[in-house]
Structure formats: structure tokens, C-alpha cells
TrEMBL record:
Gene3D superfamilies: Helix-hairpin-Helix base-excision DNA repair enzymes (C-terminal) (1.10.1670.10), Hypothetical protein, domain 2 (1.10.340.30). This is Endonuclease III domain-containing protein. Keywords: 4Fe-4S, Endonuclease, Hydrolase, Iron, Iron-sulfur, Metal-binding, Nuclease. GO terms for molecular function: 4 iron, 4 sulfur cluster binding; endonuclease activity; metal ion binding. Residues 34-187 form the HhH-GPD domain. GO terms for biological process: base-excision repair.
Length: 214
């Protein structure tokens, strides 16, 4: 099974995903921070609260009272930590400017995001792909778990390169593929359904992980 044939199979299983659900690029950024270690349903509740309070803009969020933010995002867990991270991200966007950020190359934007408190590889790449719409493949826990069950293991960048080296550099394809992996993970990657996982019946993968890029 090739990387692209995996995409085709997942698309046949789950259909179009149309991910990421957000009205603005900054809302994507907020969601990328809030989704850390929680369910998406909780993120939606938190974003709805922030939106109702008029806090879903970089300027408003960077100047918001910490207590107000915590109240809105409490349902996502780690709300004290995430409040600090959201404000740091909002201040970063205000200081640099949204339009300037989105005009950067994906690599430049990624490197700048990694300098923001609480932004790691997955969060940065989610923002680059879904908010700035630059072609970078997001590797999350579901991706690592699915590949591991297929006998494919590697570092974040090794797995990322596996996808990017074997797919066209297409933003919409990357979005959809990542979303399909998440859909698969939600359905099968839990204690109740792990034993029913279809991966053992799939064709042997022809996926080779190469060394990390520098």
C-alpha cells in the first residue's frame, strides 16, 4: 500500500471531511491551541464562548482579562496554561500582523510560530496548513498510532517527510488526508474498538521512513 492508496482507501471509508471548521484564520489558530489534549467537542464549546464575548480577534484576545478567558476555555482542560498560550499567540499575531504572517513562506511562518510559548510542531503545522494554507503535512497522535499499527515508525519529521515526499504539494489534499486520518482514529483508536481495527486486513504497506531532514 502506497501513501496515496492509503488516502484513497480512507476517502472511500469516510467520505469528504471539509476540515478545519472555522470562520477565520485566527479562529483556526485558537482552535489549534485549545485542541491540545482534549476532544474537539470541548474546543467548539470554548470557541463559541470566546466568540460570544467578542474575543476571537488577535487584539481582543491579547488584551482580554485572564479570568474571562479561563471561564470560556475551562472545558478544554489545562485552562491556566492554555490561557497563557492563547494570549502569547494573540500578541504574536498583533505584533507581526496577520496579513504579513499569511504572506510568509510556510517554513518561515513555522519557524516563527515555534518561538511562541506553547506552540510545538503539531500546533505550528496545523496553523501553517489550515490558517495560512501552506502545504505542510500535520503529524498528530492519530497519525502516529495508525502508522505504528501498520509497522511504520519514526520521528515527527521522518513521518512528515514520508507523506510530503509521496504526495503532490497540495494544500487541500493535505487538509483532507489529515482529516481522514483523524476520522479513522476517532472510530477505531480506542479501547472498545481497537480489537475490531481493520488495519491487520489491509495490504502490506510499501511505506519507507527516511532519515530526518536537517
Amino acid at each position: 500500500m502506497s501513501v496515496y492508496s492509503l488516502y484513497v482507501m480512507l476517502e472511500e471509508m469516510f467520505g469528504p471531511q471539509g476540515w478545519w471548521p472555522a470562520e477565520t484564520p485566527f479562529e483556526v489558530m485558537v482552535g489549534a491551541v485549545l485542541t491540545q489534549q482534549t476532544r474537539w467537542e470541548n474546543v467548539e464549546r470554548a470557541i463559541g464562548c470566546l466568540k460570544a464575548r467578542g474575543l476571537l480577534s488577535p487584539a481582543a484576545l491579547s488584551n482580554a482579562d485572564d479570568g474571562t478567558i479561563r471561564e470560556c476555555i475551562r472545558c478544554t482542560g489545562f485552562y491556566n496554561q492554555k490561557t497563557k498560550r492563547l494570549k502569547a499567540l494573540a500578541k504574536f499575531v498583533v505584533d507581526v500582523g496577520e496579513q504579513r504572517l499569511y504572506a510568509m513562506s510556510g517554513e518561515q511562518l513555522r519557524n516563527m510560530l515555534l518561538g511562541v510559548e506553547g506552540v510545538g510542531y503539531e500546533t505550528a503545522d496545523s496553523i501553517v496548513l489550515y490558517a495560512a494554507e501552506k502545504p505542510v503535512f500535520v503529524i498528530d497522535a492519530y497519525t502516529r498510532r495508525m502508522l505504528s499499527c501498520m509497522g511504520v515508525r519514526g520521528t515527527y519529521h521522518e513521518l512528515q517527510r514520508l507523506f510530503e515526499a509521496n504526495l503532490p504539494r497540495d494544500v487541500e489534499l493535505y487538509k483532507e488526508f489529515h482529516a481522514l486520518i483523524v476520522a479513522f482514529g476517532k472510530q477505531w483508536c480506542n479501547k472498545k474498538r481497537c480489537g475490531e481495527c481493520p488495519i491487520p486486513s489491509w495490504p502490506k504497506p510499501e511505506l519507507k521512513v527516511e532519515g530526518e531532514h536537517p
